[in-house]
Specification:
Elements: E1 6-10, H1 15-26, E2 31-36, H2 48-51, E3 61-62, H3 65-69, E4 74-77, H4 81-93, E5 97-100, H5 107-116, E6 121-124, H6 130-145, E7 151-158, H7 168-181, H8 185-188, E8 189-191, E9 205-211, E10 217-225, E11 228-236, H9 240-252, E12 259-261, H10 263-267
Parallel strand pairs: 1-2, 1-4, 2-3, 4-5, 5-6, 6-12, 7-9, 8-9
Antiparallel strand pairs: 7-10, 10-11
Helix pairs in contact: 1-9, 4-5, 6-7
Bound molecules: 1,4-dihydronicotinamide adenine dinucleotide and ligand LZUJQKHR.
EC number: 1.17.1.8
Subcellular location: Cytoplasm
Family: Belongs to the DapB family.
């Protein structure tokens, strides 16, 4: 009998890590084979199920990614940019599919992911949910249909613990709006206005970030013209939407050739 794909979770004690552990153990099409945390973390050497306050799951949390990746068909990674690029090189060495949910990735991180993707499948997206990926497509279409008389603003809200801004999703939506307009986001991005900013520049794509409480993730794409406005909105109320997407990506990646992919490739939209 063929074994189900084995999946390792990095950042297993995190908000997303724990949700992913629960998601995989409940899934009939995958097995949990590894859990990684950073060196010195209190959970190292302990059973992940017991650490999470439940029954033992027979998987010990380790700080040795290569050992865990070597027995994995996929790695699901929601950690931090510096950790993610290290995991990418090791996952590629093990030829495991690497699903990257980590946000705050900068050009130097993307270059390292590109290198690793010569040897293995990497699926990376600032948001793994079906709803946001559909919203991204809609944003591109609406931006393509409207001219620069319509000011584009992206407003996002997240929980008080989030460390990066604008969110990965907001940047995804901004890239889609810029692509729809046929421009490069870098030339139009306007983030974090403060003080005497002067009037808004025609064609800018603006970003605003709100942080507070336990907000899971909310995104508005506002198209504002004289006399009318269009607002495209996604509200996340449960992190299970990201878990569903990440698991789908890990399984989809099993039959792909090495390279870089995103959630729109996975969802076929
Ligand atoms: N793409 C998507 O759909 C989503 C992306 N995210 C992103 O995922 C990332 C994590 O989010 P949360 O779970 O809320 O954060 P968190 O802070 O709760 O968890 C991050 C975990 O990574 C661990 N970690 C950091 N460096 C490590 C290393 N070198 N080795 C092993 N473990 C390491 C931390 O100890 C922590 O347990 C963020 O970048 C966030 O923006 C979050 C939700 C959805
Ligand atoms: O940090 C989070 O929580 C989230 N991060 C992602 C982002 O940066 O867009 C996705 C989601 O909004 C939750």
């Amino acid at each position: 009998m063929t074994q189900l794909p084995g999946i390792t979770i990095t950042g297993a004690s995190g908000r997303m890590g724990q949700m992913l552990v629960k998601g995989i153990t409940a899934h009939t099409g995958a097995r949990l084979v590894g859990c990684i945390e950073r060196p010195g973390h209190a959970w190292i050497g302990k059973d992940i199920g017991l650490c999470m306050g439940g029954a033992a799951l027979g998987v010990t949390v380790t700080d040795d990614p290569l050992e865990a990746f070597a027995v994995s068909q996929a790695v699901i990674d929601f950690t931090a940019p510096a950790a993610t690029v290290e995991f990418a090189a090791l996952a590629a060495q093990a030829r495991a599919v690497h699903v990257v949910g980590t946000t705050g990735l900068e050009p130097q991180h993307h270059r390292k992911l590109d290198l690793a993707a010569h040897h293995a499948v990497i699926i990376q997206a600032g948001n793994m949910s079906l709803g946001v990926n559909l919203l991204t497509r809609l944003t591109q279409k609406v931006a393509a249909a409207l001219d620069a008389d319509w000011d584009i603003e992206i407003i996002e809200a997240h929980h008080r613990m989030k460390v990066d801004a604008p969110s990965g999703t907001a940047l995804m939506l901004g890239e889609a709006a810029a692509a729809g307009r046929g421009i490069d986001l870098a030339t139009a991005k306007q983030s974090g206005r403060d003080g005497i900013t002067g009037a808004r520049k025609r064609g800018d794509i603006g970003f605003s970030a709100i942080r507070g409480g336990d907000i899971v993730g909310e995104h508005d794409v506002l198209f504002a013209a004289d006399g009318e406005r269009i607002v495209l909105r996604h509200l996340a109320t449960d992190r299970s939407i990201f878990v569903r997407g990440a698991l789908k990506a890990a399984l989809w990646g099993q039959s792909q050739k090495p390279g870089r992919y995103d959630m729109m490739d996975v969802l076929g939209i």
